[in-house]
Design goal:
The structure holds 2 protein chains of 2 kinds. Chain A is mainly β. Chain A has 3 helices and 9 strands, in the order ααβββββββαββ. Chain A has an 8-stranded mixed β-barrel with strand order 2-3-4-5-8-9-7-6. In chain A, a hairpin with a 5-residue loop joins strand 2 and strand 3. Chain A is globular. By secondary structure, chain B is of the alpha+beta class. In chain B, the strands form 4 sheets. Chain B has a 4-stranded mixed beta sheet with strand order 4-1-7-8, with no helix packed on it. In chain B, a hairpin with a 5-residue loop joins strand 7 and strand 8. The longest helix of chain B is centred in the N-terminal third of the chain and has 23 residues. Chain B starts with a helix and ends with a strand. The chains are: A mainly beta, B alpha+beta. Chains A and B meet through helix 1, helix 2, strand 1, strand 7 and helix 3 of A and strand 1, strand 3, strand 4, strand 5 and strand 14 of B. Strand 7 of chain A pairs antiparallel with strand 17 of chain B.
Chain lengths: 260, 278
């Protein structure tokens, strides 16, 4: 199930070339069948039936990732201590404090998770595929399901339909020889309906609000995998030019959809 | 002379601004939690002489309190003491750094005497897909091993010491045994290690009094994002191959080249990390 990819050394192509190329080429060639490059950045084609879904997320307890802790970026240090603390402001700092939360420190079972997504449909495309739960590859990248007709949901982040944060669903853009369903992401028009069926819960619907390219060598994970902020769905795949020497595409195609 | 005085004044003002600036800028508060790990003793907790926690019971965790960085004096008295002048534990002086995260624990030392331990909690970001587990020995007991699923994962942990592991998220069946043994003196109990969360487990109580227990503190929101989304396999969806594979596209190649040129100029001006295409 694990999928390794080439790392992304810097490259010097003008970003705009790829953007324009996308605009021009997309409508012209929906179903390209000629592969200029045969060698994949992953395994050869695998019988999907032989694969298990991404490892069960049973005890993963992704629910616990709540609000960010104040000052998480700062490393605690023993320095920066005032030699003589001034009691007056200190007292005012403590006195008006609202009730301090106190709870039994007994081990608590993990909180129930939001319903997991199970199936993805994008109107007007052939994207009509099951969603499996995925995590992180040994190289630190998001896991992508091997079968091209399956999408992976990043199970450590919010689920589609969660009250806050960005749900991320990704899939391969190609097989060893052809384009995969997610190659249609780059052509989605704003307003396109995206439906996500869920386990034991009603489906949630989204509308495409934007489609963008993010250079892989400038991948900004914190802006894609947000656990706070407004509820969003991001569909992600590869795109742009295939960089032969890196055995990788130059960009990620990122579709952002808002609750419909 | 006047010039140099002016210059000196300017330097002094600049220096004052430099010193005053950071001090007045909003430095993040420190976060202080308090754990009560002394069996059979209800207490009040005092911070700088102010009663901060009233009737604080064993096995409870308070906080986190957001406190400006600085030095503080913590004292623990019998419940409903008139003031902090006759503490049963402390007073202890602690230094809280801006943005730091701390737990002050009232607990028994190895010999069974009430004492205080001041722990600094690691709130650095955790790698994507991982969780952190820290075990702290705060019990009247000799050194212990911590077992997960029956196998030791931490060995020889002594009173007031701690050990941190970075793990795949899972619910562990955790137990505590005397060092070098596997017969649990605490547990086994389910301890959830969640992704992006630092779970801190305290062993507290007294082995002699047979009231050893686990206390759990969680610090959430320490997650980080995956390093990338590798969705490509062969290049079959490359924009060039799509153009080349479609005979009709050849006709448009000249126009495409012009567009490429124009696009290149337009985008080099913007230079965003992500380029909107729709």
């Amino acid at each position: 199930m694990l999928h390794t990819t080439a790392t992304d050394p810097p490259r010097f192509l003008a970003a705009g070339l790829r953007t324009a190329a996308l605009r021009t080429a997309a409508p012209l060639a929906a179903a390209a069948t000629v592969a200029l490059v045969i060698a994949g950045c992953a395994a050869p084609r695998i019988d999907p039936a032989a694969l298990t879904p991404a490892e069960a997320a049973s005890g993963a307890a992704a629910a616990a990732s709540g609000q960010p802790v104040a000052g998480t970026s700062a490393r605690p240090q023993d320095a920066t201590v005032k030699a003589t603390p001034d009691p007056a402001p200190r007292a005012t700092a403590i006195a008006p404090r609202p009730a301090i939360p106190v709870r039994p420190a007994t081990p608590v079972p993990s909180q129930p998770r939001d319903p997991a997504p199970r199936f993805l449909t994008v109107a007007g495309t052939t994207i009509n595929m099951p969603i499996v739960e995925v995590g992180v590859s040994p190289n630190g990248a998001m896991e992508i399901p091997e079968p091209f007709e399956e999408a992976g949901w990043y199970r450590f982040g919010p689920a589609p339909g969660a009250a806050a944060g960005t749900a991320v669903v990704a899939a391969h853009v190609d097989t060893t020889s052809e384009s995969a369903p997610f190659s249609q992401l780059k052509s989605l028009a704003p307003g396109t309906l995206v439906t996500v069926q869920r386990a034991g819960a009603p489906p949630v619907k989204f509308r495409v609000s934007r489609v963008e390219l993010m250079a892989k060598d400038a991948f900004h994970g914190a802006s894609v995998f947000r656990r706070d902020g407004p509820p969003l769905l991001k569909l992600v795949t590869c795109g742009g030019r295939w960089l032969d020497e890196q055995q990788n595409y130059g960009d990620n195609v990122i579709v952002t959809a808002v609750p419909a | 002379m006047r010039t140099s005085l002016f210059a000196a004044g300017a330097v002094a003002i600049a220096a004052a601004l430099t010193l005053a600036g950071p001090a007045q800028a909003a430095e993040p508060d420190a976060q202080l939690s308090v754990l009560h790990g002394v069996p059979d003793l209800t207490v009040d907790v005092w911070v700088n002489g102010e009663r901060t926690l009233d009737d604080f019971a064993p096995g409870t965790l308070a906080g986190p309190l957001a406190l400006p960085a600085g030095a503080y004096e913590l004292a623990i008295t019998a419940a409903d003491a008139a003031d902090a002048s006759a503490p049963v534990i402390g007073p202890v002086k602690v230094n809280l750094a801006s943005g730091g995260n701390y737990t002050a624990a009232a607990n028994l030392d190895a010999a069974g005497k009430p004492t205080a331990n001041f722990f600094t909690n690691d709130v650095t970001q955790i790698g994507p897909g991982k969780g952190k587990l820290t075990v702290r020995h705060a019990a009247a007991a000799p050194p212990v091993d911590v077992l997960a699923g029956g196998s030791p994962v931490i060995s020889g942990l002594a009173n007031s010491k701690e050990k941190t592991l970075t793990l795949d998220p899972a619910t562990l069946s955790a137990a505590v045994a005397a060092a070098g043994t596997t017969a649990p003196v605490i547990g086994p109990a389910d301890v959830a290690v969640a992704e992006g969360t630092h779970t801190i487990v305290y062993a507290w109580g007294s082995l002699a009094d047979k009231n050893l227990k686990l206390a759990v503190q969680k610090i959430e929101g320490l997650h980080s994002a995956p390093a990338g989304v590798p969705g490509g396999r062969s290049g079959a969806a490359d924009t060039r191959s799509e153009v080349a594979s479609n005979p009709a596209a050849i006709v448009g190649l000249g126009a495409a080249a012009l567009l490429l040129l124009a696009g290149g100029i337009a985008v080099t001006r913007r230079q965003p990390a992500a380029r909107r295409i729709r």
